[in-house]
Queue: 2 jobs
Job 1
Amino acid sequence: RSLLEQSRALFAAALLSQYGQKNQNLPRETVGFLTKNLTKTQLMGTIELLQKYREECAYNVGVAHVLGALSVELEGIR
């Protein structure tokens, strides 16, 4: 759950960066990489999926199931 939340925060920072807002608390290199390599649509879709699966961790503790489903859905984001 923590990994998904931290990942969501990085993607959110990258999205904000594309709109000109800088985040001082997260790794700049990672945020910069995401900002340069993903579109706003891809960032938003990923943020939504990470949030969805983070919430599902409350009642589905099967790591393999959660990450497997997440990876399948991430493939669909274009």
Job 2
Amino acid sequence: MAEHADAPRVRLAGIADLDALAPLFDAYRQFYGYSADPLLSREYLAARLARAESIVLLAEDAAGRASGFCQMYPTWDSLLAAPLYVLYDLYVAPANRRGGVARALMVAAQDLARDRGARKLELSTARSNLAAQALYESLGWTRSEQFLTYGKPL
């Protein structure tokens, strides 16, 4: 399928992209009810990128403006005895929603993880985030009915 001129471009992000990424990451945190903290957002991303602890994909519009991002963390699946990636963050700026940005980010994340040897991608989302759930299911993701997810603040 040919790319449209206005289709989002997705690329691997690096430290040089912090000015574009940090506001998106801060908005993502706010989407999930956290207080705005631009400095924390910038420092968090800078540390992950500098230490190669995560992979961040950046979506840009035709003019090169940041429109969304996703962040994945490499880890291992001990049952598969193979690498897996956890797609932990996915965010599209409100002005760019419903334009294929999230889909492009998800497809790029899947391709990158596969190219790097991952056997599986995992993610979780809020039960109330029905738009995200519809996107994931349209891309062939299946909801686990086998495992429950727990967390404990420390």
